[in-house]
Amino acid sequence: MMKIIFRSCALTLLYSFLLFPVLPAFSQIDPPLRIELQSEKDQQEYQFVSLAQQGVAVFFKSAPLTADTAQWVFIHYDKNLVNNNIFKIKLPNLCQYLASDLSNHKLYLFLQKPAYKKDTLKNYLLEWDLIQNNFQLFYLQNYKMPYGFSMKIVKDYLFMVADEQKTKNIVYYNFKTHNQQVIQFFEDEIISIESFCVDTVAQKTYFCMFLKNKKGSRAELFTTDYSGKIKERTVFPYYPEIVYNSARMTLAGKDSVLIVGGYSNNKDKKQSGCYSGIYSMIYAGNQLSDIKTYSLGALLAQDSGLDTKYLSEPNLTMNGYITQSNGHIFFITNVFYPEYQYNPSSYGSFGYYGYEPPTQIFTGFRFLNSYIMEFDFQGILLNKWTIPITHLLTQSLYNPVNVYQDKYENMLIYYTNKDKIISQYMKGSQLLQAQTELPLVLTNKTDILEYSSNLAMQHWYDNNFLLSGYQYIKNSQRGKEKRYVFFLNKLICE
User: What is the Cα–Cα distance from 77 to 83, expressed in whole angstroms?
Assistant: First the structure.
């Protein structure tokens, strides 16, 4: 068993630049620390959750036992992907895993049983005590809504964001007493629930919403206690020339949050989802600061090699998200557009109403580039980067690019595409290593990768990462032997 090593030490890289040709961004000296779990071809039944210093949990539904129950298997691996324990747990049949949260030494899994025939939709919370190695299932008898996009567990409280087309609510639910509070507005329509976070020190929650009524639309920040009682609500500062397009939020200290998002300048007439730039502001002392704005055009000017013609495309759009690393806050905005191609079986022709052009079919979302902005906890912009995203076409939207900053403030920017890890190393504005592609390493030297799917990479703990996905592999020395596996690789950045 061997490992992949990411070379990001500043001294090593600078020394190699001065004395030797530039090295690859990633070097592989041994096969990686890796696990494989056999699967039926093209099935996607395995789930996993990072447990930080406590390892990683892998789980799946193995088989139905009766009409009402099914057996699930839970595997706990340590930090070196060594199998610690295997548990077989009976759960309600037809349940689907949707979300998780790690709270101290307990892992919580949100399970949902869809409505079936005369049976209504049912929600469950499975508690796994990682120290005592016991499981407890809670039926959320008063929570009848589908899962939205965010879940957080603190003590006995479940905080859930339900943001469906017809249901937009924030739910405060005590899964032991079944007391429930739902944040609703009767005079305003909720356009979107933009972000949600929990301050466990001050024991309060924050959430941002876009609302509208007959007087117009606005963005607001709310603070509540754990039971869902609203303590403060603050309207975002009004600027006649600016429209808020998104509002992402993260804790920036006790009783303080940083809000970062995209904005459109009214005179630019940007369509919804396309930003003129990025704004930031701090909420502290029960009030919002004035916003600071950063034009995306200024970011583009840094990279003369980036093709900017797409910025004028009418269907260009963006999405942004916020993350933390090494005590700094990063806001990442990805530019993409929906891509179409002509159906080869459809040709333009003249019909009853004249010329009928050939039909187009949706081929996926084409990513173009990513803007990364680094802030401190006071909302001060420290650094900004633009990197191209090459040849990435996806059928569903997600956030492909992520960042990791070590204690020396060396910055790893990375994403996965097809069978490769793409990375770039920076230190402030200094380029330590140009963007490189690292092919995946398999378990055996004689393995040949046919294809992979659902490839993803995430930070695990310290300077360690997890690479996951499914692979169809054949072995060149074993004739026609092939295997389809779910895999986890441990990657080390040093």
Answer: 4
Instruction: Dump pLDDT digits (tens) for 195-215.
Output: 999 999 999 999 999 999 988
38-56 pLDDT, tens digit per residue, is: 988 888 899 999 999 999 9
State how far Cα 205 lies from the chain centre: 21
Is residue 33 within 8 Å of residue 489, measured between CB atoms? yes
Alpha-carbon span 310 to 367, nearest angstrom: 11
First vs last C-alpha separation in the chain: 19
6 pLDDT band, cuts 50/70/90, is very low
Taking alpha carbons only, the member of 362, 266, 371 closest to residue 308 is 371
Choose among 101, 105, 89, 148: nearest CA to 123. 148
At residue 4, does pLDDT exceed 60? no
The per-residue pLDDT for range 89-132, each reduced to its tens digit, is 999 999 999 999 999 899 999 999 998 877 888 999 999 999 99
Residues 360-376, mean pLDDT to the nearest whole number: 89
pLDDT over threshold 90, residue 460: yes
Please check whether residue 124 is in contact with residue 111, taking contact to mean a CB–CB distance below 8 angstroms.
Answer: yes
Quick check: 178 pLDDT over 50? Answer: yes
268 phi/psi in degrees, rounded to 5:
-80, -20
What are the beta bridge partners of residue 486? 37, 470
Containing 37, the helix (H) or strand (E) segment is strand 33-38
Distance CA 458, CA 80 (A): 16
Q: Which helix (H) or strand (E) holds 19?
A: helix 10-19
| Residues 79, 51: Cα–Cα separation, whole Å | 9
The pairing of strands 256-265 and 230-235 is unpaired
Nearest in space to 406 (alpha carbons), one of 13, 18, 122? 13
Structure token digits, residue 163:
């943001």
What are the E-state strand segments in 115-241?
Answer: 122-129, 134-139, 150-154, 157-163, 168-174, 180-183, 189-199, 204-213, 216-224, 230-235
Q: List, as one string, the DSSP characters of 278-296.
A: EEEEEEETTEEPPPEEEEH
CA torsion 297-304-376-151 (nearest 10°) is: 80
Q: What is the pTM of this model?
A: 0.86
